[in-house]
Structures are given as C-alpha cells and as structure tokens.
Amino acid sequence: MDLEIGAFSGVEVEALQFALEVLSPGTLLETTRFTFHTPHLLLYCLDCENEYIGDPEDLLCPGCLGMDFEVRQGREMVVRSIHGT
Amino acid sequence: MEPEMNLEGDALPLPGMGPGDPREDVRVIALEENILGANEVVAGEVREILAKKKITALNLISSPGSGKTTLLVETLNAITGEIACAVIEGDQRTSNDAQRIAQTGVPVVQVNTRQACHLNASQVKAALEQLPLDDIQLLLIENVGNLTCPAAMDLGEAAKVVLMSITEGEDKPAKYPLAFHLAQVLLLTKMDLLPHLRFDLELCRRYANQVNPKLRIIETSAYDQDGLDQWFEFLRFRLSR
C-alpha cells in the first residue's frame, strides 16, 4: 500500500508507522507492506511567481518575502494505491 | 513489518523485480483516497446545515489553559443582546466548561472526546441536533486544548481562530505552524500579565507572520476587557459575510 503523508499534513510518519505495526496483526492488513511517500511542503508565491520548498516554521517566499503565497503540496494524507495479486 | 521510506518523498521500487518475476502480475489499484476524506465529507454536511440556517461557525483552537472559556464567557456576556450565540464545548472529560458557559444563558452542548485530542466533524454534527438552530447566528466551537491535531480536522467552520496566552512563550507559531497558518485571527490572551513576563511581543508577531502573513492579531485581556472590542468587530465582520 502506497501512502502519501505531506510534510504539512499534521501527521507524523513515524507515529503512523508505529500505529500500523501495532494494529495490523490479525487484520486484513497483516501482510501488507506500507510504502510512505513524504511530499515536501511546496509553496507558490503569487507576488513573484516563485515556487519554493517551504520551511514549516517560515513559509514566506525567500525571494521577495511576499504576503501572498499558496500551499501547492505538503498537506496530503492519502492512500495513493494498493498493489496486489 | 518493515515499511520502506525515503525521505526525499520517492517510493522505493520492489526489490529484485525483473522479467518473468511473478510479481509482474501484481495489479495496482490507483486510489488517491484522502484518509481524512470521511471527516471532510461530514464537515461538508455540517457546512451545508449551517448555511441553510444562516449560522456562522468559528473553530477556536489553542493549548490547554490559554483562556478560551474565559474569553468565551466575556464574549457571550457582552454580545448576546446583539448576536444570538451558541457554544459547542470540546473537552476530553468533565462538563465544567459547559457549566461556565450555561451561566451566561447561551445554549451549550458539551462533547467529551475521552481519549481523543480533538473534535471531529461527526461530533459537531451530532451536537447540532441538540441546539436550537433556528435561533442561532453565531456558533462558537471550543476545541479540545491542543495546538496540533485540531488543526488537521475540518469541523465545517467558516474560520479557525487560534488563541495563545502570552505565558506560553512567543515561539508557539513556529512550534505549531499548521494551526497558525490556517487561522484567520490570533487572539493573544492574558495581555494584562505582560508587565510581569519576559514576553517579546514583536518577536511573537514575527513568528506568526512567517507562517501566516495575513493573520490578524488581536491583543486581549478578558479580565480587563482590553482588545475585546476588536474581537467583537471581527465577529460582526464574519457575520456580515
């Protein structure tokens, strides 16, 4: 199972990994191997049209310190796909 | 079980896979299923109910003890003549906060989340059934005291409001960026304590602006009633939208 857990999703991959390890035995997920994708926090500055990787503590555009930016990637908490035979 | 992870964000390929490998028969089902999707569906239902009844809901998020309930009580005492309010109180245990709110005469529902550290949309939807929705303009949802998980859970609110008491230290926005990033307003509480603390207000503003440059910051003291007028102005502004 491919999981996507963004850097700004509010979910800590290690904690989720631990929970899955503890909870899976005896369930359908028992033999499932989990692959975690951890998309960076990707931001887009509407002022200078710069796309940049954000530091969660400081989201401002490093180019112009502009006020207008949007989160393009990093909020994901998604089951991307399931692989099976 | 050894989950595979690569911190760059790329998946690792299945090991040793080549031509003729039985694993070539592996079927891949693309899902792109949002794990919080179930909550977001219910949050959408809550939003629909509130829109139908023309109710504006605010989700109040903060650490435990930042003064959410005290601010709510002062708010309700001041504005209930002007704005019809109701409150949903989220706490792990006890109905202490709901009792404090009930003394103002405003309808209140206590939701006990027990071990859970945040409210979810289903709990809010169930609480709505206990409120006189035809007589409410403003619904104030006091989330469980916690700056982490409540940020990730949409409750169907119109806006998030984050509270932070100045005894907590100026770097809370840097330590818990998501809550401050998603909020429309930051209420700095317990400002009356400023003379007794080494709290750098400018530094706090800088940290907050780094994660949310449009965040409106209001300095309040519920005891002295300072700054509450600006908070009420925000409530009126939200109601007018």
What's a concise summary of this model?
The complex is a heterodimer of chains A (85) and B (241). Chain A has one helix and six strands. Chain A has one helix spanning 13-23; strands at residues 2-5, 35-37, 42-45, 51-53, 69-73, 77-84.
List keywords for this structure.
heterodimer, A: 85 residues, alpha+beta, three-stranded mixed β-sheet, 6 strands, B: 241 residues, alpha/beta, 9 helices
Largest sheet of chain A: 3 strands, mixed
Terminal Cα span of chain A: 12 Å
Strand neighbour order, sheet with most strands of chain B: 5-4-6-3-7-8-9
> Which runs of chain B of at least 5 residues are low in confidence (pLDDT < 50)?
1-17
Give the CA-CA distance, first to last residue of chain B: 51 Å
Write the layout of secondary structure elements.
The complex is a heterodimer of chains A (85) and B (241).
Chain A: E1 2-5, H1 13-23, E2 35-37, E3 42-45, E4 51-53, E5 69-73, E6 77-84
Parallel strand pairs in A: 1-2
Antiparallel strand pairs in A: 1-6, 3-4, 3-5
Chain B: E1 4-5, E2 27-34, H1 37-52, E3 56-61, H2 68-79, E4 85-91, H3 96-102, E5 108-112, H4 121-128, E6 138-142, H5 149-152, E7 159-165, H6 172-175, H7 177-182, E8 185-189, H8 201-211, E9 216-219, H9 228-239
Parallel strand pairs in B: 3-6, 3-7, 4-5, 4-6, 7-8, 8-9
Helix pairs in contact in B: 1-4
Question: Could you walk me through the main structural features you see in this protein, from its secondary elements to its overall organization?
Answer:
The complex is a heterodimer of chains A (85) and B (241). By secondary structure, chain A is α+β, with helices and mostly antiparallel strands. Chain A contains one helix and six strands. In chain A, the strands form two sheets. A three-stranded mixed β-sheet of chain A has the order 2-1-6, with no helix packed on it. The radius of gyration of chain A is 17 Å and the shape is elongated. The mean pLDDT of chain A is 93. Chain B has nine helices and nine strands. Chain B has a seven-stranded parallel β-sheet with strand order 5-4-6-3-7-8-9, sandwiched between helices. In chain B, helix 1 packs parallel to helix 4. The termini of chain B are far apart. The chains are: A alpha+beta (85), B alpha/beta (241). Chains A and B meet through helix 1, strand 2 and strand 6 of A and strand 1, strand 2, helix 5, helix 7 and helix 8 of B.
